[in-house]
Specification:
The complex is a heterodimer.
Chain A (H helix, E strand, L loop, with lengths): L3 E5 L5 E6 L8 H10 L12 E4 L2 E8 L2 E7 L5 H19 L4 H6 L1 H11 E2 L2 E2 L4 H4 L52 E14 L5 E14 L7 E5 L4 E2 L14 E2 L1 E4 L3 E2 L3 H4 L1 E4 L4 E10 L7 E9 L4 E10 L6 E10 L4 E8 L6 E6 L4 E10 L3 E10 L14 E8 L8 E6 L9 E15 L2
Parallel strand pairs in A: 8-26, 11-12
Antiparallel strand pairs in A: 1-2, 1-5, 3-4, 4-5, 6-7, 8-9, 9-16, 10-15, 10-25, 13-16, 14-15, 17-18, 18-23, 19-22, 19-24, 20-23, 21-22, 24-26
Chain B lengths: L15 H9 L4 H16 L8 H6 L6 H14 L4 H14 L5 H13 L3 H15 L4 H17 L1 H6 L2 H8 L5 H16 L10 H13 L2 H11 L7 H11 L8 H15 L5 H17 L5 H17 L19 H14 L5 H11 L5 H17 L4 H14 L2 H17 L8 H5 L8 H13 L7 H9 L7 H17 L3 H16 L4 H16 L1 H8 L15 H9 L4 H5 L18 H10 L9 H5 L3 H6 L24 H6 L22 E3 L7 E10 L2 E10 L9 E4 L7 E2 L13 E9 L12 E7 L6 E6 L14 H10 L5 E6 L7 H10 L3 E8 L2 E10 L3 E9 L6 E6 L6 H13 L1
Antiparallel strand pairs in B: 1-2, 2-3, 3-6, 4-7, 5-6, 7-8, 9-13, 10-11, 11-12, 12-13
Helix pairs in contact in B: 1-2, 2-4, 4-6, 5-7, 6-7, 6-8, 7-8, 8-11, 10-11, 11-13, 12-13, 13-15, 14-15, 15-16, 17-18, 18-20, 19-20, 20-21, 20-22, 21-22, 22-24, 24-26, 25-26, 26-27, 26-28, 26-29, 27-28, 28-29
Classes of the chains: A mainly beta, B alpha+beta.
Subcellular location (chain A): Endomembrane system
Organism (chain A): Salix purpurea (Purple osier willow)
Family (chain A): Belongs to the adaptor complexes medium subunit family.
Chain lengths: 446, 904
Amino acid sequence: MISQFFVLSQRGDNIVFRDYRGEVQKGSAEIFFRKVKFWKEDGEEEAPPVFNVDGVNYFHVKVVGLLFVATTRANVSPSLVLELLQRIARVIKDYLGVLNEDSLRKNFVLVYELLDEVIDFGYVQTTSTELLKSYVFNEPLVVDAARLQPMSPAAIFMQGTKRMPGTAVTKSVVANEPGGRKREEIFVDIIEKISVTFSSSGYILTSEIDGTIQMKSYLSGNPEIKLALNEDLSIGRGDYRSSFGSGAVILDDCNFHESVRLDNFDLDRTLTLVPPDGEFPVMNYRMTQEFKPPFRINTLIEEAGALKAEVILKVSAEFPSSVTANTIIVQMPLPKYTTRVNFELEPGALGQTTDFKEANRRLEWALKKIVGGSEHTLRAKLTFSQELHGNITKEAGPVSMTFTIPMYNASRLQVKYLQIAKKSSTYNPYRWVRYVTQANSYVARI
Amino acid sequence: MSGHDSKYFSTTKKGEIPELKEELNTQYKDKRKDAVKKVIAAMTVGKDVSSLFTDVVNCMQTENLELKKLVYLYLINYAKSQPDLAILAVNTFVKDSQDPNPLIRALAVRTMGCIRVDKITEYLCDPLQRCLKDDDPYVRKTAAICVAKLHDINAELVEDRGFVESLKDLISDNNPMVVANAVAALAEIQDNSARPIFEITSHTLSKLLTALNECTEWGQVFILDALSRYKAADALEAENIVERVTPRLQHANCAVVLSAVKMILQQMEMITSTDVVRNLCKKMAPPLVTLLSAEPEIQYVALRNINLIVQRRPTILAHEIKVFFCKYNDPIYVKMEKLEIMIKLASDRNIDQVLLEFKEYATEVDVDFVRKAVRAIGRCAIKLERAAERCISVLLELIKIKVNYVVQEAIIVIKDIFRRYPNTYESIIATLCESLDTLDEPEAKASMIWIIGEYAERIDNADELLESFLESFPEEPAQVQLQLLTATVKLFLKKPTEGPQQMIQVVLNNATMETDNPDLRDRAYIYWRLLSTDPEAAKDVVLAEKPVISDDSNQLDPSLLDELLANIATLSSVYHKPPETFVTRVKTAAQRTEDDEYAEGSEAGYSESSAHTADGAASPPTSASNVPYAGARQPAPAPSTSPPAALVPDLMGDLLGMDNSAMVPVDQPSTPASPPLPVLLPAATGQGLQISAQLTGQDGQIFYSILFENNSQIPLDGFMIQFNKNSFGLAAAGPLQVPQLLPGTSAATLLPMALFQNMSAGPPSSLLQVAVKNNQQPVWYFNDKISMHVFFTEDGRMERGSFLETWRSLPDSNEVSKDFPGITVNGVEATLDQLAASNMFFIAKRKHATQDVFYFSARMPRGITFLTELTTVIGTPGIKCAIKTPNPEMASLFFEAIETLLKG
């Protein structure tokens, strides 16, 4: 069980503080913040999520720049506490629509009411927004979402794509729309984070997809929903029922939200569930089956004399031209003695910026978007203050990349259909099935 | 509702409290609610709104749940400071606990349990009894937790009223939330009781396993954790349990997965069928790996647990090493843990892949990560004999990049590799030597010097290399000095030519005369003696074959590992420490003092976690060359290590840094002293001469009270005494007066002592080295401990005012404190008298909660003052001593003295 729960701002201000057991001194928030801010132990400069100071155990997670913290004196399950902290953030977000310092302060009475229902005497009672609705009476005051940082994974849909109803992700699950009527809609997001490591010769060393099917339902009356996935989906690498190479999607492992019923899953790969209110992951999955990486990165380094070298970075988008990636950043650490970098973009380049971050000797190349099938090149001329020791490739790199590709998923896992149990013939709620792929650790060694 | 809650934070000019009071008493409901909100807002920002207690409590009788909750929130906060007023609320609580609305019933019980006021607690029992049997599950589950609350306030009451039995009944409740809370409450009560309360029988087991399927994710964790204490009767039962728990591995909640893993691992110990075990291992692997797709915080917990699991069952993840490869954007704490596991999973089969990764990490930007990666390569070399050569070639490649910290780290691990595979890879020494002048870290330098010394015969210019270090000998850190000393001796023994001979002179001279480091000096003397008496013996000792080191990446002690594995999915498994080392919740049953436990907890900080093995991996070079004569590393030779009879005559002069003419002749009779003195030179060591001695203070003068007993067969005469340089500069102030001692006789004497005569530099130490000589025997030397209190003078008494003033005038940095957990103050008077007798003067006393705080002053010659604060609970073990002094460097000696005094 936990003793205290609190939320601190980036500056260490106490935004929310709830003591459940009175076992830990009141100054714990300050002790915690000082410890985290000046962490320096075992050569590490970032505090681990769990640590002990003077007999008090501190747990923390970072959510949109806020620190969610719990303390205890007992030998509790750390994964439970960390998971709980994430869930509290999600519940509060479900209620407030937007999670930030401002919204927390404006809704402090509601937040305390929630916290009293979520935890009793340090024991988690429930983190289901659905269940909480029956016990929580304060109504949220939704703050202006337009200028706020998004929090949830679904928030990535807000970027750039006009097809997406941008406000939906920052809409409170419980608050009524102006006009009193709620719009009947449901969002199913297939979010994949991909990690790829290319060797210096362009060969794929490791590749992995961490995927989530995220659901957020605004349907009234909680109707039953059926989600159908690829029929040829198989689970477990040792499981070769569908022959390899035939295009079947093979997941290494997956798990499901507790509301999901898997009665027909083995038969026809459908999931049945009555979605609770609020945002939740229907299914998490992991895949190491080979897939086609969306980007290829080519790095060419030419040494030009003792104190000069040229780096040529080429990024090729290997996905269909109907798809566009956005907010691409390519980074590469440069040798320590680099003093100056001259960039040369391809002629007519639009929406591209380059930078040499001198503090950490890093080259940064940002591209607003990349259309499928296209190729972009950057030339960077480096000047060194001192001769290099030999092989420049040992002192620079690797090249890493971050990006977001809406309406694209590398695993080819699909939601074939989304069926909502009909209440009447006229009942036809909005259904949004959205795909997005993001880079997790996308690295090309040089 | 309108407007924002934040408006409640705004204040008005016209005094806030009266205005709120007015609003709280208005007849309009909405306005009252707003007023309570304002009160709560003020409360949360730390304003004192307790004066509104009555007004707020008046708002309690309302049907409006929102308002009621606010009032309750206020009550919880202020009931403790206003217990008499809190009683006013009791009636409403009791009434609410019978309200038709289940939410109000539950709320009343929940809140009452949070008010830790005895008077309220009495009234809680009846409503709680009712609510435990309520029709509504929400009320029952709240009541279940409330029993744990009550137990925390008054354990007896819970047992007297049979609440534990009611909780046990709730285990069979038809609502899974109620079951889960009952289990949680029982587990907590059990944790805090010495006697068995909640024992899991096979009957409860099956009930709980059934409830598991219906529970919320959190309830599943409570139940799994409670069940993990269950010991299956046989393999069959264990298999059955595992079968019912295995589906939990598919849960999206990481806490459920880890608790299920814990339960399965535990039952697996009982399962005998290897097929079943193999199958279970196969089933556990994917969920464990999936944990690494969660948020980095959870990944960290998972990795710390996996670290333990693979030590016991390496097969589970033997084929999954790739998932532990570091991602570019992993936080550093995740990367470090992944490296640990990669080393543990490294095998002959995957080592090439692993080395490729390590090599890549070793060229990244983060210095700490790079260092750890380089060490990881070395640890793989030590672990996998067949891969050692490949590991070394990777290290050499890294050295060639000439990144300073990489080179230094590589040299440190290569030294270990040389220890592991002697006479195998020495060909690379030449490459290492190229980087010699870039080394600036002590450990790397020491490692390189060790290598040069160890292989001096194969390095043509070993003498030149070492000589280059010798110039800066006095400035080097102790670690490097020790290695230089040993390496030079090795060089000399291997190449006894003129160059090394001169070097050894320089080193021994430096290490004996110019240093204050006892380790270094003692080691130098040992070498000196060895070399001057028996060079062949020196060879046998110094160049002895060293024991081969082994891989320590599975370094946890098996019994500790067992305990940690039983604690998978708890904090214990993250810290890699047994729970009792950091759990600081005080058990109500066992009356342990809180302070003790806090002290324990503070030492059990995360930083010391034994799992951070990188440091342990590279055994420092000192241990490498020190093995044959570990005794020499004691800060000073113990009395038992008496010098051999063939000692060079003037070694004593060497040892004491003085020549013999300064010795005090012994020729006069003595005066006996009464109390038994501690024996410092036992007869067995002193060829029949026994010496007992102690420093004493008498009338402001310090004496060395000595007793000589001659148990030998010959008369002894011509006694002389000499004191080595020491922190207080103690020296004999007059001649030692001991007559000729016939066999079987003894003589006692009081030797007047002077302070501040031959001061030693360096950090203060209580060590007093004494040498005694007579005409018949070799020189005896022995160690005494200076207890500082003998120096306290009678002018140490201070007025309260000046004490306070001095205390305040000293900066906080001059305050030092220490706990003496084992010492008890039983009688105040006796203790004060005892301290006063040693010139520690009592200034004042105050009460702080249950503790008494005493203040004392004490002064040493030269005006060195100690202001002391002792905090203790009379009659209970544990004293905290805090001192403020202009000479904080003396604090440790002061604490030794006070410990001696308090122990009486």
